[in-house]
Amino acid sequence: MLFLNKDNFQRDVFLGLLAWLILIIFYFIFPDPGIHDIIQKVFILGLFAMSLNILIGYLGLIAFGHAAFFASGAYTLGLFLQSDFVLNLASFSIPVAMLLAVLVSSILAALIGVICIRLKDIYFSFLTLAFQMLIYSIILALVNITGGDQGLMGGFPKPPFLGIDLGKPFDFYAFTIFISIITIVLLRQIIESPFGYGLRMIRDNSERPAALGFSNQKHKLIAFIIAGSIAGLAGSLQALLDVGAYPEWAFWSKSAEPLFMILLGGMHSFLGPLMGALIFEILNDFVTANTRYYGLVLGLVILCFVLGLKKGLLDWILIKFNRK
Amino acid sequence: MLKLDKLSKSFGGILATDNVSLELKPNSINAVIGPNGAGKTTLFNLITGKISLDKGQIFIGNKNITNLTESEITHLGVARAFQITNIFPTLSVKDSIKVALLAKQHGLNNMWNRFKTHSINNEAESIAKLSGLTKSYDTISSELSHGDQKLLDIALALALKPKVLLLDEPTAGMGPEERWKMIDRIQKLWKKTKMTVLFIEHDMDIVFDTAQNIYVLQQGSIIAEGTPKEIKNNKKVIEAYLGGGKK
Amino acid sequence: MEIFALFDCIMSPACLLSQAAGGLKIGMLLFLVASGLTLVFGVLGVINFAHGALYMLGAYFSWQIMSITGHFGLSVILGALGVGIFGLLFERILISRVYNAELLVQILLCYSVVLILDDLVMIIWGDEFLSSVGVPEVFQVPPLFIFDAIIPPFHLAIIAMSFIVGLILWFIMTKTRFGRLVRAAAVNPKMLEALGININLLRAGVFMLGSFLAGLGGALAASVGSVVSGMGNSIIIESFIVTVIGGMGSISGAFLASLIIGMARSFGAVAMPLFTDGLMFLIMVLVLVLRPQGLMGNKK
Fold it and tell me: Are C272 and C279 a contacting pair, CB within 8 Å?
């Protein structure tokens, strides 16, 4: 028990693996593919939302254009797996594709970040959105490469690697959750490191750091790149799930989804966005099963949280139990 | 230790700092006084590099720090506390001081260790002790009393282990008893660290009791400087204050 | 890039004129809507992300009134007024709660209302799009031929109407007491309160005006296009672009920016048909990077 109380990396890894095992067991206890689907989606979107929360919750930067990196990850993976490289790489295709997705997204984040970081507040927010929509337009315009408004057409192969066959539902489930949990554990390390507290410092007071001999801009840029990379990873997982990539993932409304999750779950607790993703998906599932007026229900729920609770669910729970 | 050589700065035609020169001896404690709008905070901003000089030079020891950036100047040994507390609301006293220490030591790029168990903990504790914040060490900054917030503001500056410490109205917003406690605390840490201290203050009793040298600023220029005794009897100063004794 | 197509068009008076007229129509209609958005931001400090939904309501309201009365003018005026009243209620009940909240809260609040309204209109008027109200009879005349360009007179009417509304808006803002109070409120609301002006009434009034403008835009749009749920979603983005390019809070900036965007769209559709929208966003990126306060905005 003492081991579990220590807040360190080893404990996080242990808890992460434990969670993964529990979810694997869960897979067999509840064989309904619908439930598996929800859990996978919760992790993919949760990862996306947690990456955005690096910026919103910990850095205090409201980025409106975060889905640009989600989409870039998805399209990179899709295009790579559709290309001839797959013939050469065979069983390394998917790992390479995913690494490429993360790499491309991080480069994109570096380029966009360098320009956006120079602006403040609402101008920063709008510029990120403008860049995202610019990328959306580019995706639509390059019809020959991206398939335009139809998205990547023709699917792509998912060659097995290291004994994992992503064509099989169980393999996909286990793999997706594993990758997500590893990323979450690594993200926690970053957030709880001195770097992470540097983020909080900038969020709390953007003027004082200079008087402490510290450069905000470099720190913000690195955080922006990390956030973009993780979003790209999430996008690549989504592309693997849907065996495709769609321009809607680069549209501004896709950037609203992680914002909702952060609102619903809470921006001040590490796992808040993940809980938000859970709430979001359950709501989604429940509502679309009963009515087609999904927007109405979602809108009302958000309104309640914004005006009523004023904080996310996990934040609220943790405050009630007096921990942070 | 700190030498200002004919500093001048205008804002849109208004001369905020007018040919200011002064020299602080190492390990001295000095005060800047003057009516509101005299340009005291502007002077601090010039020294710390927050705003740029029009004319003049600034030296820390032998090093010319004229027109260096705020960050660079901080690393060369100048630290300041602010008039309106400039702290990190959601961080505890402990975490705030740790973050300041790490910032100075370029340790905030580190992603491998855990902040909570960082070896900097010990150093942070001693700074808190020096600043009189041991009792409120784990309190979240936004929940601190006004006095403790001001102490934290100073603690953050101390974390930089400065050679020159600038304090901008450290007793602002406090009642008389609290004020003396604060200045007492400042004297204690000045004696312990042997820094060169320059503070802005309106309470004349405190100034005369604490400072070794006093500089009187009016409309951007120094109209008098000297020991408390000299200043008390200086006609120009008496005129400027119309009878002395403030707040 | 169809550079040659663009070149040919500019060289041909017919094409040049018809594209220019089209650009003017898009631009002026956009100006109507965007002026409301920038007004609300400039005075109330709120980014009303639901502004596009108000535009949509204007279209639906006027469509409904048209189908009841058959009178075009009435449908436009009453439709816009209806949205104005809705805006008033929206401001008093919801917006007023988030004046001092952070940007994220304001955006989420407004977006939730968009989601609600998008579904609500489907519940009330059905899922299918409603065919346009149609050009009013008086304008059902043969198109004008100016230098061989085909220009529907109704488009000219829309341009004229928007321009006139813009002039009226300018007049209100600069020559009337209300306008002076509004501009003062943008700069120093506390001072006005201290002078005994009812700030709440002023705020509600401004929001109502902004909503009216959005509704008017929607009502006019209903005459030349179909009415469907979600039609506000593209106009809100364009309005944002205009507001940013023109300068947030500046109506004259919105006018200039709307013209630029209108022309960019119209000629952009010739030069780069696949990237027309992209061109707008590129302009927005350039403005934000080079001159964040916009063309007519003030550096804060």
Answer: yes
